[in-house]
Amino acid sequence: MQFQERLSRYVEEIEQALDQYLMTFGCNGQEKIVEAMRYSALAGGKRLRPVLTMEFCRAVGGDPYAALPFACALEMIHTYSLIHDDLPCMDNDDLRRGKPTNHKVYGEGLAVLAGDSLLTYAFETAARGMNGSDVTAQQAVEAIGILAHEAGYYGMIGGQVLDLAAEHQTLTYEELVNLQDKKTGGLIRAAAEMGCVLGYATEEQREAAKTYANRLGLAFQIQDDILDIEGDEAIFGKPIGSDEKSGKSTFPGLMGVETCRKMVQDLTDEAVCAVKTLPESDFLVQLAESLVGRKK
């Protein structure tokens, strides 16, 4: 199967599963909160993290569809983080994926609760992920542990804490890498590691996956920083220049755009090299390369 065909199939399966999970969510008398959850969860996007979960499972010899509930749980957590990230008390953004942000449509209170509900429902979805599949209880528990770890203060939340504390300060390169390794890299790392766990990967394969995720996560964030300077808002899907307005340190601000372009390519090359040892690596290689020079 060609790269684009497999990618489209993964995204379609993820979209359908998210729609089904949120449709079947017990919402008797709670239609408004489910509507707010669906608004952001089904707003499109690259679905990079759940795609990585499914593909890493396949790449090490597992069934990618056994990983689908865990992939959707990860995407729910990513979506909740975006809802909260856009709030006035955080980044105060009005646009996300080309649409008004959740709090602009539903109000701040319901937006907070929609994010909270996606977070808690994510773990319910993952906990039920072994039903009707070959996923063992041990695999499910390990995958859920990875997800909780990388979504919490060690990972994504910790990165957001550092991000808030760093507003209107100039960070060093090392400080900025540490911040983004947590805030952006945490869930990308979780995607790769969960896929490996669910696909019965060896320790060597898991290390390769982690290296790929770390390099890809940093490259992804640097490219995001570049797009925040010179991207097209209609394509990028969120306001251009928001980092500068918020007084945030960025990689282009520290090193310049051209140096950052080279870093994105070098990090991508390192990610590609890491996964060449896996039984199936072509898709992961092409996925990494497709993110170089992306416009959204």
Automatic annotation (TrEMBL):
One GO term describing the cellular component: cytoplasm
CDD domains (UniProt xref): Trans_IPPS_HT
GO molecular function terms listed in the Swiss-Prot or TrEMBL record: (2E,6E)-farnesyl diphosphate synthase activity; metal ion binding
Keyword Kinase listed: no
Catalytic EC class: transferase
EC identifiers of the protein: 2.5.1.10
Gene Ontology BP annotations: terpenoid biosynthetic process
InterPro entries on file: Isoprenoid_synthase_dom_sf, Polyprenyl_synt, Polyprenyl_synt_CS, Prenyl_diphosphate_synthase
Keywords associated with the record: Isoprene biosynthesis, Magnesium, Metal-binding, Transferase
Catalysed reactions, semicolon-separated: isopentenyl diphosphate + (2E)-geranyl diphosphate = (2E,6E)-farnesyl diphosphate + diphosphate
Cofactor(s) named in the record: Mg(2+)
Listed Pfam families: polyprenyl_synt
Entry keyword annotation includes Transcription regulation: no
Family classification: Belongs to the FPP/GGPP synthase family.
UniProt-recorded name of the protein: Farnesyl diphosphate synthase
Species for this entry: Butyricicoccus pullicaecorum
